[in-house]
Specification:
The chain is mostly beta strands. The protein contains 1 helix and 17 strands. The structure holds calcium ion (3 copies).
Length: 284
Amino acid sequence: MSVQMQERTTDEPVAPHEPDKTALSEDPARPNGPARPSRRTVATGLAWAVPVVGIGAAAPKASASPCPPDSYVMSWGGSSTTYTRNSSTSATAVTDPDGAGWMPPVTLSIASVLDGRMATGNESGSQNQNLRISSGTVGGTSSRGLQLEQTVTGTRNSVPGRSARQTVTFSFSRPVTGLSFTMTDIDAVQGDFVDMVELSGAFTYSYNSTWLQGSGTQGDPLRPRYWGDRSATENLGNATITYPGTISSFTIVYWNNAPSFSNADRNQIVTFTDFSFQVIRQDC
Ligand SMILES: [Ca+2]
Ligand SMILES: [Ca+2]
Ligand SMILES: [Ca+2]
């Protein structure tokens, strides 16, 4: 019989609690080893209030233009953005800050591809929040969230690791500069899931290094340091991502690094806060 323990959706208010501080394995190359504290965990244990800031790759400078930048916010659930979920693997968002004014709308196309033993939604099929906007705010922020929800499928006798994954491509209709957003709810529950997040391209990241680790690359994904289910009111699973250069698209790879499975529903969730960015026209 399946235990109905699920990763809480962001719609579900949960009272804050003292987080469990049982450490996960720090080495992504040895994902299935026993959870253990590491020297680095101890060394950074005092850095509660100091976010770690790193650079995923060398960032190009924004292209020169005589035009002042136009600022946009793709606001999940906000009136300035029209969001359409076509399916659990396809969505479109359109934002136009000044409506009929001279700033042109920007369209964001979102497309998910599933590999291996990975499906969208939860394992029992009773819920599917993938590419759905949360009804409430996420990660202790004032923003509603664009959610990814997925589950490993098949036998519980083996863990698929990264061979089961969701790859989400975000494509903008115009090149955007300085794209920034926060990912929330990067967490882990024993026997169930360990959120692993990789991003493409040249970005910087910032998070509370007491709770999160990694640089967001394939070899060193963003991931939690400790077991514990972060709720919608907590910011301990938050990582802020910024693409300082000009990009037209980026990709997220999301997978489950649980070292073993219990009978829990193996769904896992991460969310994105509003996307803020600039468009630099070349024709003013
Ligand atoms: Ca306009
Ligand atoms: Ca959670
Ligand atoms: Ca999560």
